[in-house]
Amino acid sequence: MLNKNVSNQIPIEFNSDQDEFHQCNPSKSDSTATPGLNDNSNSSKIICSQLFEHNLNQDDDEFDSLNKQLSDVLLTDSYRPSLIQAFSADMSSYLSHEKLTKNSRKMQQEYEQANNKERGYVFNTYIKNNIIILSLDKYMHYILEKIIEIGPSNFKNIILDQIFNSIKKLITDLHACKVMQKGLEIMSEYPQESVPQYQKYINFILEETNFTRKLYTDKIGNQIFSKSLEVFEERNLESLLQIFNKYILNHNQYSLELSTDQYGCLIVNKIIDIFPKLLDQKTKSIANEIIMRTIHNSSCLIRRQYANYIIQQLLEKGSENHKRVLLDNYLIKDFISMSLDKYGSNVAEKAIVYAGSQWRQKLWEEEVSISESSFRKLVNDQFANYPIQRLYEYLTIEYRNEFIALLNRLHDSHFLNHHGQIVLKFSLSNYNAKRFTQKINANENSKPTKQQEKNKQLQQVYEKQQKIQQNQMQYQQYLQQQQMMALQHQWLQQQQQQQSQYLSPIEIQQYQAMLLQQTMLMYQQQQQNLQFQQSSMNQQQFPFSQQFQLQDQLNQQALKYYQQIQNFQKANQNKQE
Fold first, then answer.
1. What is the rounded distance in angstroms from the CA atom of residue 419 to the CA atom of residue 378?
2. Would you write out the chain's pLDDT as a tens digit for each of its 577 residues?
3. Are residues 299 and 396 in the same domain?
4. Which residues make Cβ contacts (< 8 Å) with residue 241, sequence separation at least 6?
5. For residue 172, what is the domain's CATH number?
6. Are residues 175 and 294 in the same domain?
7. What values do phi and psi take at 30, rounded to 5?
8. 512: left (phi over 0), alpha (psi -120 to 50) or beta
9. Is 463 among the domain residues?
10. Which of 189, 205, 221 is the last residue of a domain?
11. Helices 141-150 and 174-189, axial angle in degrees (round to 10)
12. Residue 168 lies in a domain
């Protein structure tokens, strides 16, 4: 810490040399006193300069000691100066709000990566004494949220204590309310770390006062109640739902109605949203009572500027039981009058989208197309033409044809106004686009997919491999048969040499002619063998049927001549005998 007496020890600044001379040399003044030692001008200047230099040296020593103390605090083994630099850069321009958006994001990122010592230094230096001011700031409230989320528990509790001590001032501020919501979210996850702070917040929320009742319909304060409905445990949630139950479609002494208010309806929407997640039966029964009350009053709510969003929320995020009751018992009977209303037409569109095909079919058959007058009223209305267009999009082909037939009939009779013409153009363009889309989809479906093409290519490769293997096997069989034929030819030549002495000249000529014919056949088969090898290399199928026919002919002729030879042998033996 700086010495408080340092400022008093700094010498007076001389404005000019003349002033310095007059202050240090009183002999030049009008005094009549006897001149002393200090009246010497040179000695006076020496004394003043020594005093000035002594004070400067003392300031330098204190400045060095402060720097050493700061280094001892910050320069640790895991020191990272980026977080402190980010805060210093931001705080230097804090009042002018220069570069705050960029600096705020940088500080959040640096805070996530900083060590505990650095976080502690930043919190004690920049945050601790400015929590309320920072929570109201457009950019710096994000730093508080980040500390609450990932900072140490003691820092989080210090922030929450100061925030909840000034809750009435901060709850209607947009940025401070976000800090509260983040604190509520973290406290609900880790309630044991912030027991006093959490209890202080619960006591405030569950207290029914004029101030809290005003917050139900406040633009900003309403958000903290929606967040409470989302994160409260069963016991506190039950108490909060009991409070809201008094002000939702119920008569009360304060004439407060949340369902028709611009911001109060958001609380009802949140109750609808959390209902499927509720487990406690008592809490669920209270929420169910609120939702059923809105369903019974749906005919009125769908025509209100803000309450119609409650019915839309039921259609979009409500449970199936509530949705079925609403659609089957209320909305389908009230569809025509609802569609003709400015706000009800929005609900009618949501009903068509989320109702399901059976409900839309029933709606078309029993309400819309039941008479030409009702259909004409809907298509020609400035509000109802929108849900009718939406209904056309979700109808089946059969009902679309009926829809277009009714429109053409009204068009031919000149019963369509400007809005009806828009519906006609929309339906025709949508019909043609639908047909074109179906045609494209059919073509796309007929085209093989990439996987199918890949499988087909693999199948073709497999079939080619099978054919090649078959050709190789048949070629081996063919070579074996050729070898047998060569052996038969060799055996016939041997028989010729042995039996030539027993044959007559005419028989020898016939036998030679047979051998010549057999030789020609062998030559032809060798030529076909070469062609077969070439066709196998080109992966072409070899004509084995022709080869087998030639081979059968050759075998029959060989067998025939072999029998003749046997007959000749027997005849010669008989002659010799």
1. 10
2. 444 444 444 343 434 444 433 444 444 444 444 444 444 455 555 555 565 566 656 656 665 665 555 555 444 444 445 677 666 655 544 444 445 566 778 888 888 888 888 889 889 988 999 999 999 988 889 999 999 999 999 999 999 999 999 999 999 999 999 999 999 999 999 988 999 999 999 999 999 999 999 999 999 999 999 999 999 998 999 999 999 999 999 988 888 999 999 999 999 999 999 999 998 899 999 999 999 999 999 999 999 999 999 999 999 999 999 999 999 999 999 999 999 999 999 999 999 999 989 999 999 999 898 888 889 999 999 999 999 999 999 998 899 999 999 999 999 988 999 999 999 988 888 876 655 555 555 555 665 667 777 777 777 777 877 778 777 777 777 777 777 777 766 766 666 666 555 556 666 666 667 766 766 676 666 666 656 555 554 544 444 455 555 556 656 666 666 566 666 666 666 655 5
3. no
4. 229, 271, 283, 286, 287, 290
5. 1.25.10.10
6. no
7. -85, 10
8. alpha
9. no
10. 205
11. 0
12. yes
C-alpha dist (Å) from residue 240 to 151, 205, 211, 217, 277: 30, 8, 16, 15, 16
Q: How far apart are CA 280 and CA 287, in angstroms?
A: 11
Distances (CA, A) of 438 to 376, 390, 540: 29, 19, 43
Q: Which one, of 170, 228, 229, lies nearest residue 198 by Cα?
A: 228
Please give the Cα distance from 513 to 521 (Å, whole number): 12
Distance CA 558, CA 526 (A): 18
Q: Which residues contact 120 (CB under 8 A, 6 or more apart)?
A: 152, 155
Whether residue 70 is contained in a domain is answered as no
Domain range for 312 is 208-331
Q: Is 414 left (phi over 0), alpha (psi -120 to 50) or beta?
A: left
Asked if 231 and 269 sit in the same domain, the reply is: yes
Taking the C-alpha atoms of residue 279 and residue 553, their distance in angstroms, rounded to an integer, is 93
Distance of CA 540 to the CA centre of its chain: 55
Residues 87 and 74 sit within 8 Å (Cβ to Cβ)? no
Q: Count how many domains the chain has.
A: 3
DSSP state of 165: H
Regarding whether 366 and 287 lie in a shared domain, the answer is no
3-state SS of the chain: helix, strand, coil percent to 5? 80, 0, 20
Give domain status of residue 186, yes or no. Answer: yes
Reading the block at residue 424, the tokens are 């006609």
